[in-house]
Amino acid sequence: MPVLRDLFINLSENQLLNSAAQKYGLRLGAQSVVAGTNIPEVIKSIKELNAQGISCTVDNLGEFVFERSEATKAKERILEVIQAIHENDVDAHISLKPSQLGLDIDYDFCYGNLEEIVDLASTYKMHINLDMEDYDRLQPSFDLLDQLSQKYDNVGTVIQAYFFNAAENIEKYKNFRLRIVKGAYKEPAEVAYQNKHDIDLNFIDLIEYHLLNGKFTSIATHDHNVINHVKQFVKDHDISNDKFEFQMLYGFRKEMQLELAKEGYNFCTYVPFGDDWYGYFMRRLAERPQNLNLVTKQVFTK
Ligand code: FDA
């Protein structure tokens, strides 16, 4: 399986295939895990999830942008999404990737884009989550968060359990609303655990640490073992449901998403939309090659 994982991660970074994919719309099974290509479609999906007691975090797909015009376009789109969430009065907030807003072009340019987004969201008391990307972008993304949090309190980020420095960072950001994940990129052995067992153990430690801190924790995983562990942990430590939520990606383990919401847990679905779905979709295949079933089903049921 590690061979397949590496193959899909390499494919996720292929710029040429990415541009080709954008031309051909939602294909290869991506429509099962991407909630449409435009704002009306994503609002419709959010309304359906809200009706089932599920809140949403919306991701306008896109990453590794190297043109200023493209980053500006992404910023405008995200501002429109914020406006649409507000006008439709749906239960949703925003997740975004700093590289989509120009982190690889110029730090200050990216900060300016982000500030506009966080500023508009703050007028609607809407949370903005800075998704975390690969190791090269880790510190610059924390720097953006540090700078933004001097002015705004509606911003948080992600701690990736595969990094050796995750414990250090979770302590540093203990006063923030945090999403905790295992980590989705291919990272070198010098900076990250490579072994699933080590990652899982660190994941649990980080979740417990932040839950005990009392700041809002988003536990983002499809792993039922981790979810069951968290359910018992919050019970044992009298941690109330308003202090945490479970998060899963749109289209994955749909029954479990509904079940958790029905059991009374806060549940938030990560809802990606847009044309730039290729990198996102390839990383999902890398995490779980069984997701190839999505592809074969779509291809053979046309
Ligand atoms: P993992 O893939 O380790 O699976 C564990 C077990 O769970 C499997 O062995 C299987 O038994 C079961 N399982 C998993 N998926 C299943 C399925 N679809 N159906 C049935 N059983 C299944 N990463 C990152 O680097 N930066 C980020 O900002 C984010 N953001 C983010 C948000 C949200 C909402 C989620 C859910 C995830 C992320 N991630 C992320 C991705 C994350 O780092 C990680 O790569 C994936 O969630 C995969 O790891 P899991 O914890 O889901 O379990």
TrEMBL record:
Substrate binds at residues 97, 283-284. FAD binds at residues 132, 160, 182-184, 196, 221-222. Binds 1 FAD per subunit. Residues 43-293 form the Proline dehydrogenase domain. GO terms for molecular function: nucleotide binding; proline dehydrogenase activity. Its cofactor is FAD. Pathway: Amino-acid degradation; L-proline degradation into L-glutamate; L-glutamate from L-proline: step 1/2. Pfam families: Pro_dh. One of its GO terms (biological process) is L-proline catabolic process to L-glutamate. InterPro entries: FAD-linked_oxidoreductase-like, PRODH_bac_arc, Proline_DH_dom, Proline_oxidase. It catalyses: L-proline + a quinone = (S)-1-pyrroline-5-carboxylate + a quinol + H(+). Keywords: FAD, Flavoprotein, Nucleotide-binding, Oxidoreductase, Proline metabolism. It comes from the Bacteria. Its EC number is 1.5.5.2. This is proline dehydrogenase. The keyword Transferase does not apply.
